[in-house]
From TrEMBL:
Belongs to the cytochrome b5 family. Residues 2-78 form the Cytochrome b5 heme-binding domain. InterPro entries: Cyt_B5-like_heme/steroid-bd, Cyt_B5-like_heme/steroid_sf, Cyt_B5_heme-BS, Cytochrome_b5. The chain crosses the membrane at residues 103-119. GO terms for molecular function: heme binding; metal ion binding. It is found in: Endoplasmic reticulum membrane; Microsome membrane. This is Similar to Saccharomyces cerevisiae YNL111C CYB5 Cytochrome b5, involved in the sterol and lipid biosynthesis pathways. It holds the Pfam family Cyt-b5. One of its GO terms (cellular component) is endoplasmic reticulum membrane. It comes from Maudiozyma barnettii.
Length: 121
């Protein structure tokens, strides 16, 4: 019988030295693997304490990666436990969006100047 963890318990393991992730309702302790991950430590750490199924599957990891993953399994998720609502990690994205907003304003001003110039030709 494997250990069963609530979403809350799993969410608490979200530091670089203590990183758990959920994939397909199973719990994996990837703390010691972060530095070895071929895709970089940050990409996994971003999912620390969370359900990383979508991210893990989307990459199309190899069978070797799946085997390695299996070796890190420490238990299962109590899927009946209350889910944890995480604050979205949007710091960089917000900055990016602001950048896009600024770009839109600059483009709009340029269009206005060019339009004004041609109308007064
Ligand atoms: C949040 C979850 C994860 C994401 C988003 C992710 C992402 C990635 C990415 C982008 C690569 C490609 C690196 C490259 O070719 O430049 C990669 C490779 C790899 N990852 Fe992950 N990874 C995740 C979790 C894991 C976990 C938990 C394991 C195993 C314990 C793992 C094992 C591997 C291995 C072995 C490779 C080498 C290529 C392969 O064999 O598929 N990854 N990963």
């Amino acid at each position: 019988m494997s250990t069963v963890y609530t979403y809350q318990e799993i969410a608490e393991h979200n530091s670089p030295k203590d990183t758990w992730i959920i994939i397909d309702d199973k719990v994996y302790d990837v703390s010691k693997f972060l530095d070895e991950h071929p895709g970089g430590d940050e990409i996994i750490f971003d999912q620390a304490g969370r359900d990383a199924t979508e991210y893990f599957v989307d990459i199309g990891h190899s069978d070797d990666a799946l085997k390695l993953l299996k070796s890190k399994c420490i238990g299962k998720v109590d899927v009946t436990s209350e889910k944890v609502i995480f604050e979205p990690k949007v710091e960089e994205k917000t900055e990016g969006n602001q950048g896009n907003g600024q770009l839109a304003v600059i483009v709009a001003i340029l269009c206005f100047i060019v339009g004004y110039y041609f109308l007064n030709e």
